[in-house]
Design brief:
single chain; 440 residues; alpha+beta; Rossmann fold; D-amino Acid Aminotransferase, Chain A, domain 1; 3 domains
Length: 440
């Protein structure tokens, strides 16, 4: 039985600073809201340790996600609700949440203007962007891998695969489409769509396709913030027009993400619009230092005068990666202690911004090929950030696998190297050995 579809309540200015954050992963958005001074109650699939550390309450919803969300939210204090990734594909859930709580996010009415091939093709046309050839039936679609089969209601690249004529699941009921594979570099653009107009927050290069990293193909596995001027001028102009087009859509407000490709002739190809806060936002937040959740909530009339709490801005380039393993990972105390030692060193180097995030709890058993932990790195240039990230990911993998020179034991069974110590600067100001512009 589906949820009723009432019109969402207009958001009212709250009398407290309570806020509810829901989604598949609420950690990043909850942290942003907490830095803006909100008292956060979060519900997601993980309730990771760092989420629990900055939220007033963190609930792991094991069964019935997302259908059980309205009942779980009903147990929390009366407060506005904001949502993160994946819930844009469940408008009935959002309508049910909006029935009893102010919804500080795009509601069902706004979603239909940016979800699905027809809406995206229209947006691409008015923005001067390209859109891949897309079909709603496999009839006549080449089976040579030149097309992708993908869920219409997708998130994070899950469920996308080359089309070879069959995917081994003939009884699928989820709507799908078949889209021509386009060669190009994947990017994301982050906007805040306010009543006064759109603002392009930043652009990030995306890391997709995690087969060699222990994950499924085409899934999102990280990204790197880049200055917009690094893109061709034609692409920057197209993004500006796209922002204006998004701003003119009724019901579309707040933090919005856009996935696009840049092809060899410097053309922009629109892939997807994510009408909610995206995983790339925290990269831009570390650059500017301001909690972007405050801007998003302000678009819905939600603000208060509590001073924001956050580390200072760290210009340059920020990179992040989701670390996956091809085997199950059992989390215990020694594993977490070793990760915490590295986290302390890297966080110190990065000006106080956490280097590790989405940290599991003791006793968690994480399945193979799923995300285990998120790693961040900063660099003065994109190349420096990429080197630092690669170095940190290698160390984290060694720790998770209990192998290699940085793991709990080496492959020969010898004792591990001692835990890292916090770096100190020399009198001459030399960069510490473990800071991000130098690989360990």
């Amino acid at each position: 039985m589906g949820f009723p579809m009432p019109s969402p309540r207009p958001v009212e200015r709250p009398t407290t600073t309570e806020l509810i954050v829901v989604g598949a992963s609420a950690r990043a958005w909850s942290a942003s809201a907490a830095r803006a001074g909100w008292r956060v109650h979060a519900i997601d699939l993980f309730a990771d340790r760092d989420l629990a550390a900055h939220a007033a309450s963190a609930t792991r919803l094991h069964e019935g996600y997302p259908r059980a969300l309205p009942a779980a939210v009903a147990l929390l204090p009366v407060a506005p609700v904001t949502y993160t990734g994946g819930l844009e594909n469940h408008p009935r859930i959002l309508a049910a949440l909006a029935r009893d709580r102010p919804l500080a996010g795009v509601g069902p009415a706004g979603l239909r203007h940016v979800r699905g091939p027809v809406a995206l093709r229209r947006l691409a046309r008015v923005s001067g962007m390209l859109f891949p050839e897309t079909r709603v039936s496999p009839r006549g679609v080449p089976c040579d891998g030149s097309f992708l089969v993908k869920p219409v209601a997708s998130a994070g690249g899950s469920g996308i695969a080359p089309w070879t004529g069959t995917d081994g699941a003939p009884q699928r009921t989820q709507p799908r489409c078949w889209q021509r594979l386009v060669a190009g570099r994947p990017y994301s653009a982050s906007y805040v769509i306010a009543t006064a107009g759109p603002q392009l927050i930043g652009v990030a290069r995306q890391r997709l396709g995690a087969v060699r990293r222990g994950g499924p193909p085409f899934c999102w596995c990280g990204g790197m913030s880049l200055p917009a001027h690094r893109l061709p001028a034609t692409v920057v102009a197209a993004l500006a027009r796209l922002g204006e087009a998004l701003w003119r859509i009724d019901g579309l407000r707040g933090a919005i993400g856009v996935d696009f490709l840049v092809t060899a002739p410097s053309a922009a190809v629109l892939i997807e619009v994510n009408p909610r806060p995206t995983a790339s936002l925290e990269l831009h937040e570390r650059q500017c230092g301001d909690p972007i959740a405050a801007d998003h909530l302000g678009c819905f009339g939600l603000s208060h005068r509590s001073p924001p709490r956050h580390p200072p801005a760290r210009p340059g380039c920020w990179a992040k990666a989701l670390v996956r393993r091809g085997h199950p990972v059992v989390v215990d105390g020694p594993l977490l202690s070793r990760l915490a030692a590295w986290d302390a060193v890297w966080t110190h180097c990065d000006g106080g911004w956490p280097a590790l995030a989405d940290i599991p709890s003791p006793g968690d058993s994480l399945p193979a090929h799923g995300p285990v932990i998120t790693v961040f790195a900063h660099g003065s240039t994109a190349a420096a950030a990429a080197r630092a990230l690669a170095s940190r990911v290698t160390i984290v993998r060694d720790v998770l696998d209990a192998t290699g020179p940085f793991g709990a034991v080496t492959r020969r069974g010898a004792a591990a190297s001692p835990a890292p110590r916090l770096p100190t600067r020399t009198a001459s100001g030399t960069r510490p050995r473990w800071c991000p512009d130098r690989s360990p």
